[in-house]
Amino acid sequence: MLDDLPLTPPVPLWNDLRLRFASEAEATEQLLAAGLLNETQALIGPDEQVIQPAGHAPAPGATIDTVGVIYKPTGETVTTDMGEQPEMAPIEGWHVNVRLAADHLVPELDAYKVTPANPVRIWA
Q1: Domain ranges of the chain
Q2: SS3 call for 85
Q3: For residue 124, is pLDDT > 80?
Q4: What Cα–Cα distance (Å) separates residue 114 from each residue in 7, 71, 85, 97, 98?
Q5: pLDDT tier, 24 (very low <50, low <70, confident <90, very high otherwise)
Q6: Nearest-CA neighbor of 87 among 95, 102, 75?
């Protein structure tokens, strides 16, 4: 009886973006321009001590995971004081994962989207 019911694919809750920029500066610039990142002011204590420096924070509704530079094995090994270790080389670019609500689309970041075969980090 249940076999006769049509199956409906699940509706995604999230719009997950894997992005690669040329540099950290470009990532910051593009995420700010897309409205996914906000500038923050420094938090100064009563004794004029900087408690938290000025910087950036995700905009409401955005979760940002800055992966940064990703390294992969070259196939060679190097000898260290810990023994033989795989030699690592950077993958080109500055990598950022962004999670948004499923209906939140950001077409201005389409040029930076990548689809890695084996992502280094994923959302849980």
Answers
A1: 13-34+61-112
A2: strand
A3: yes
A4: 30, 16, 29, 10, 12
A5: very high
A6: 75
Q: Could you tell me where the beta strands, DSSP code E, fall in the chain?
A: 14-21, 37-40, 43-44, 50-52, 55-58, 63-80, 83-101
Paired sense of beta strands 43-44 and 50-52, if any? antiparallel
Q: What is the pLDDT of residues 42-89, one digit of tens each?
A: 889 988 888 888 899 999 999 999 999 999 999 999 999 999 999 999
pTM for the model stands at 0.80
- One-letter amino acid at 10 equals P
Say what the pLDDT of residue 2 is. Answer: 62
Mean residue pLDDT of the chain comes to 92
Name residues whose C-beta falls within 8 Å of residue 93's C-beta, 6 or more positions apart in sequence: 20, 21, 22, 69
Contact, 66 vs 23, CB < 8 A?
A: no
Are β-strands 50-52 and 14-21 bridged in parallel, bridged antiparallel, or unpaired? unpaired
Helix (H, G, I), strand (E, B) or coil at 108: helix
Q: At 31, which helix (H) or strand (E)?
A: helix 24-33
